[in-house]
Design a protein that fits this description.
By secondary structure, the protein is an all-alpha fold. It contains seven helices and no strands. It starts with a helix and ends in a 9-residue tail after the last helix. Its main location: cytoplasm.
Length: about 160
């Protein structure tokens, strides 16, 4: 909502995410990047990375051999890569507990297919196609944050 609000305030001035970061850097001075759409986008990109790593892990066939329809292994991998280093002890423990509430892989794939019954192989192929398009975009956002020195490493 913060990102959208900034964009909507002046669509001509905020045509791209990079424009938003550049203008906010100028506007907020020493408070940047700890404020506004820059901070919101930082957490959004981290959440998106979690989802992309989760989907990549599922599509790569990584699984718990004893419980192949569970996605805990995939979620734990995604958490380790995308979010854990930004979370304090309490949030890490909360996440560890939350993996027991995750849907079954079959239910997740069905949800991704909007409730339609589709062969797992077809769903996995669609995930591959999505990842091939989404991953470069997210990589570009991460690169932009690195180049602009906008990444924060504090723990939530």
């Amino acid at each position: 909502q913060k990102i959208r609000a900034v964009y909507d305030s002046n669509p001509g001035k905020f045509k791209t995410l990079q424009n938003i970061l550049e203008v906010e850097k100028e506007m907020h001075g020493s408070a940047w990047p700890k404020t506004g759409a820059t901070l919101a986008l930082m957490w959004l990109k981290r959440g998106l990375k979690f989802m992309l790593v989760l989907l990549q892990s599922i599509s790569d066939g990584e699984r718990d051999e004893e419980h192949p329809n569970l996605i805990r292994v995939n979620a734990m991998k995604a958490y380790e890569i995308a979010l854990k280093k930004y979370h304090g002890w309490m949030l890490q423990k909360l996440f560890m507990g939350s993996v027991y509430a995750l849907p079954y892989k079959s239910d997740l794939l069905k949800a991704l297919e909007k409730g339609k019954e589709v062969k797992e192989e077809e769903s996995i192929e669609k995930i591959h196609q999505f990842l091939s398009r989404a991953t470069p975009i997210l990589d570009a956002i991460y690169e932009m944050y690195t180049k602009m020195n906008a990444e924060l490493s504090y723990k939530a």
